[in-house]
Amino acid sequence: MPEQDTVWNPQTELGRKVARGETTSIESALKQDRPIMEPEIVDQLVDLSEEVILIGGTPGKGGGKRRTVTKRTCRMHKSGGRYSSKSMVALGNYRNIVGIGEGTAGGTRAAIEAATREAKLNLMEVEKGNGSWEDTGEDNSSIPFQVSGKAGGVEVELKPAPRGTGLAAGDGVSKLLELAGIENIWVQSRGQTRTRGNQVKAAFNALKKIDEMKR
Question: What are phi and psi of 96, to 5 degrees?
Answer without folding.
Answer: -160, 0
